[in-house]
TrEMBL record:
Its main location: mitochondrion. Residues 28-47 are annotated as: Disordered. GO terms for cellular component: mitochondrial large ribosomal subunit. The lineage of its organism: Eukaryota, Fungi, Dikarya, Basidiomycota, Agaricomycotina. The keyword Transit peptide applies. It is found in: Mitochondrion. This is Large ribosomal subunit protein mL54. It comes from Laccaria amethystina LaAM-08-1.
Length: 119
């Protein structure tokens, strides 16, 4: 594909133009929509969606069945702690915590210096 061909190609940002596997899957499976099942706030676990919710966009290969959310107990325990920030213990001078803080401060100083050079 040449550069000009890529420029002439129409850009389509509507959801109807996206071709995901679940929109053109040959198999028709009966799937309960997420809006039909209203779980109570007490029954929702650590996940953001309830069981049997259709996870759109995860199956990008054509001809594959739709991906449904599993119950929270079927996922590994470490999955619920992935987005939490790392906590380093203070192990004295020259330790891991001091190194992490020094590298973060150095990175920020470099970003500030680069920003000031562009002004």
């Amino acid at each position: 594909m040449t550069f000009l061909h890529a420029l002439r190609r129409p850009t389509c940002l509507r959801a109807s133009c996206r071709m995901y596997a679940n929109s053109s899957a040959p198999e028709k499976t009966a799937v309960k929509p997420a809006a039909a099942k209203k779980p109570s706030p007490a029954s929702i676990g650590p996940s953001a969606c309830s069981e049997d919710t259709v996870l759109t966009g995860l199956n990008y290969l054509k001809g594959q069945p739709t991906v449904l959310a599993l119950p929270d107990k079927d996922y590994p325990e470490w999955l619920w702690t992935v987005l939490q920030p790392k906590v380093y213990e203070d192990d004295g001078p020259g330790g891991k915590l001091e190194r992490v803080k020094r590298r973060a401060a150095n990175r920020q100083a470099i970003m500030d210096r680069n920003f000031m050079q562009t002004q």
